[in-house]
Amino acid sequence: MKTQTLILGALALAAAVFASPLQKESGQSCCGSMMAMQSGHDMDKPAAAKLVKGVQKATITIDNGMYIPATISVLKGKPVELTFKAGKNPGCGSTVVFKSLKISKEVGSKPVVIKFTPKEAGTIAFTCGMGMFDGKVVVK
């Protein structure tokens, strides 16, 4: 069992090191995608944020090497509040980084809310502190 765990760990590390250029260009990490496929989650299926009193809100759980949901859709020009909460095994995902927004927050036992207002359509990526798994906000 230990040998199998070591081999799987080595394969995951090799996949991270030798990730294809296509994965790097698309902004997806190999590890997050692999873990999502194994668990049956579709990382690209967007979950629409709910409009509450003029604010677009969504809750994202960090667990087992992924963000659930990993893709949130919002509308430009309206404030966004994303609540990140830790699952049973948040791992390095407990640090949430939005590079383009210059935001980095630690998610501990209490949920953390990240607020911003998207000015234009496009994609706003977020990652864990180590860049091993990721998510995105699709702005329409």
Give the SSE map.
Elements: H1 2-17, H2 21-26, H3 30-39, E1 47-48, E2 50-52, E3 55-63, E4 66-68, E5 71-74, E6 80-86, E7 95-98, E8 103-106, E9 112-116, E10 122-128, E11 134-139
Q: What are the salient characteristics of this protein?
A:
140 residues; alpha/beta; Immunoglobulin-like; 6-stranded mixed sheet; 5-stranded mixed sheet; 3 helices; disordered N terminus
Write a short abstract of this structure:
The N terminus is likely disordered. Helices cover 23% and strands 39% of the residues. The relative contact order is 0.18.
Detailed description of the structure:
The protein is built from three helices and eleven strands. By secondary structure, the chain is α/β, with parallel strands linked by helices. The strands form two sheets. A six-stranded mixed beta sheet has the order 1-5-11-10-7-8, with no helix packed on it. Strands 2, 3, 4, 6 and 9 form a five-stranded mixed beta sheet that branches. The termini are far apart. The model is unreliable at 2-41 (pLDDT under 50).
Look at the structure and give the CATH class: Mainly Beta
| Number of E-state strands | 11
Biggest β-sheet strands, sense, barrel = 6 strands, mixed
Total helix count?
3
Name the beta content range.
35-45%
Tell me the count of domains: 1
CATH homologous superfamily caption: Cupredoxins -  blue copper proteins
**Might you state the CATH topology name?**
Immunoglobulin-like
What is the CA–CA distance across the termini? 47 Å
